[in-house]
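Justification of computing resources. Each target in the renewal requires a structure prediction run like the one illustrated here; the chain below, 152 residues long, is used simply to show the kind of job we budget for.
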Amino acid sequence: MSRSPVLPVAALSLQSAVFLSRELEVVDVDDGVLAGLVRLRLALDRSHGWLLLGCIFVALASVIAVGVTVESRLAFGAYAAAVAAGTVGLGFVAERLSFGLFANRASACGLSREASEHLFVAATDADHWLDVLNSCGHAASDSELASFVRHR
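Resulting structure tokens:
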């Protein structure tokens, strides 16, 4: 009677399978991963103004394009008013887009949604702290940055 082949490694137990699927909190994440997420948040924060400016230029270009092509003053005025009203919400849309990108990367690292939201807010505090350290001539290591964010 032949036996089926056996793997040379032990199969995952139910306990380790549950651990692997568990969402992590900020304290459970590796320092390098956490520091990378903080740096991503800071990069998104720095690009926020450029994203808004780009959206405003696209809206302005669309108004100019419609103004050149449409004969009706009423249609042009309605479109320009709609675009002007729509640009008010660009700040909210840009912030939600930034958070969506950040949360996607954080969930890929295993963080829970609540931990992602906490880290998203705490990372903005790290920006000033990093500026102070850089002005003193000290570049923060990944472990220092992760420790700072964990205690926020």
